[in-house]
Amino acid sequence: MTLTIALDAMGGDNAPDTVVRGALNAHSLGVEIILVGDETEIKSRLDGQGAKAHHISVVHAPTVIGMGDKALVALRKDKETSMEVSIRLVAEGKAQGIATAGNSGAAVVLASRHLKRAGLGRPVLGTFLPMGHPPAFLLDVGANTDTTPADLVGFAHLGSAFYENWSGEANPKVGLLNIGGEKGKGDKITREAYNLLAQEEGLNFVGNVEGRALGGGVGVHVVVCDGFVGNIILKFAEGFGSAMLRFFGIETREALAGKWWAPWLKGTFNAPILATRKRVDYAEYGGAPLLGLTGAFFICHGSSSAKAIFHAVRRMKIMVERGLHE
Fold it and tell me: In sequence order, what are the residues at sequence separation of 6 or more whose Cβ sits closer than 8 angstroms to the Cβ of residue 278?
């Protein structure tokens, strides 16, 4: 059976243009894509694409959840928004996954309404931070800004299961993000979460870890925190990676300025710079998986480019084929 992915064509700062272009670029991936949104707008961007659009169909949705809308507005709003129609396609088995660059708060609320897996707590957003070998899996990175100690335990289980199935690493090590490694550090919620995690069966909990653990080298595979902290870390890491590449380029150009032999070294410097840029470019990752649902779900940056949408489709294909959302 061919994999089908629903894309919220109207979600994001640059929709529907970037979403449609990302879907067109995915023609080589061997998946079917359903673009959900204003049919007239979408089809006007598909006109003339010929064979490049053979894998794309359109489902009309007349309204949109705004990027500035409160999350709970999504529950009261017209049920025919592009985001909710996309999610229902997965709930009804017409698609195996969904990606949206729209309002992330609304996405979590609507995913919980239609796709929440029985017996689990809150869905949680996780992502790999490309700062170490192997990269740490950090969750939550934005789905839940107010969490309880029990929520953090649930996040740990979901993150551990996802990491084990993604990497093959049996019994991955789980750390709780804190301001110090010692027991008793942190605020009331993290202290209580530490005590619960330390008693929890089925988890390889190694204790508190500091922010430096996200850079790798300390043997922790999964790092748990609340979505407020996690989202700040994620966006800081993206900005910091871009800044470091920019500074490296400036310093390299200044060091080589006026050197007659500099052109001979151009390839030597370009290769690692390009490889590093690819590693830290958020668009290469497409988005972050929302775990704890009955279908695969990727939440992408609101400012996602066509490249990011393409990679969201590519990575969701891997996720579904390997059953990682299970």
Answer: 284
What's the pTM value of the predicted model, to 2 decimals?
0.84
Q: How confident is the model at residue 129 (pLDDT cuts 50, 70, 90)?
A: confident
**Domain map of the chain by residue range?**
4-116+293-321, 129-282
What are phi and psi for residue 309, nearest 5 degrees? -65, -45
User: Which tops the pLDDT comparison, 27 or 257?
Assistant: 27
Do 4-116+293-321 and 129-282 share a fold?
A: yes
Helix and strand counts by DSSP (H, E) for the chain: 10, 11
CATH (one of 3.40.710.10, 3.40.718.10, 3.40.190.10, 3.40.50.300) for 4-116+293-321: 3.40.718.10
Q: Given phi > 0 = left and psi -120 to 50 = alpha, else beta, which region is 228?
A: alpha
Residue (of 276, 283, 282) closest to 252 by Cα position: 276
- Between CA 84 and CA 287 the distance in angstroms is 18
Position 17 confidence tier, pLDDT thresholds 50, 70, 90: very high
SS3 label, residue 224 = strand
Please give the torsion angle defined by the CA atoms of residues 308, 310, 315 and 317, in that order, rounded to the nearest 10 degrees: 160
Tokens linked to 77: 């709003």
Which is more confident, 266 or 182? 182
Comparing CA positions, the residue from 101, 86, 103 lying closest to residue 34 is 86
Q: Under CATH, domain 129-282 is a member of which superfamily?
A: Isopropylmalate Dehydrogenase (3.40.718.10)
Burial of 137 (0-12, 13-18, 19+ CB in 10 A): buried
